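Invent a record, attention on tokens:
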Amino acid sequence: MANLASPAPAEAASYNMWTKVAVPFEDTVYDIDFDSADHGYLVGARGAFAETNDGGKTWEARSFSNLDAEEEITYRFQVVSFKGGEGWVLGKPTLMLHTKDAGKSWERIPLSPKLPGEPTSVLALGPGKAEMTTSSGAVYVTDNAGRNWKAQVKETIDATLNRMSSSGVSGASYFTGSIINQERDAGNGAYLAVSSRGNFFLTWEPGQDFWIPHNRGTPRRIQNMGFVEQDITKGLWMTLNGGKLFITPGAVDLKQDAYDFFEADIKTGGYGITDVGYRNEKEVWAVGGSNTMYVSFDGGKKFSFDKSANDIPGNLYNVKFFKEYDNMGWALGSSGLLLKYTGKQ
């Protein structure tokens, strides 16, 4: 049973493997992406937007020339994605920006008000190509830099669940019409999504006409889910209310209704786990409320406390590793918190 005790005291912590990096704003940092080992961008709340040209050692504030300063501060930039000099930024209220010259100039991409749900993610796939998802489970691709988008799923999730209401998935009949925490498999483009109430989850693979709902197999509410090492063939992880973490022992069949998960040995003192990131097959990181950090060196079976952000107020929301750039790692949080992975000292 979860309690509200504090996380492990700093003096008992075994690790201190992250270093705080200064950023030019104090707003929540939502996403980070790199176009090369040196060049990257950071986005966040209240129009926060910054660029690095030295691998993230220093960050400089940037602004979008096609947004005036008063307008820019009203947006929460939630997603940034780059590939080969081409980049995309997604903001809320709904705003999509696109660059073809590594961020020197940006164009605003008009999106139809008839889109099912709000855009929730965008992924750069190459010259003129990108993939976008919405809170209703729509998946779109463009190959002409956003002028046209082609639907990949034939119906929204609520339409699927209304049609499959007798499917036996617990909570599906109470679906509110929106999903949260969409995660994409880096290999074949499959998606995981959690219902906004956290009472079940759904999967979709390219070529399928609709999403498939799955029982969560526990009475606790799902907080977040993802793919082990961002690879559907290696399994799933799932965080639950009360600081619980569950991982499948291997690959899963997305057509199955429910999966076998094992519970990781992680002592969070009840603090929620907001994200999990795999640096490699063995080294796994979990981050969460009150800037707690935990590391496993056995593939997620047992975790130890890391005190890197122990004295910093706030919450961590995102942990990412970039295998293509010497496996550099970043943890993102509230109040302009950006941590860089330094490894064992």
Notes: The first strand starts at residue 18 and ends at 20. Helices lie at 69-72, 157-163.
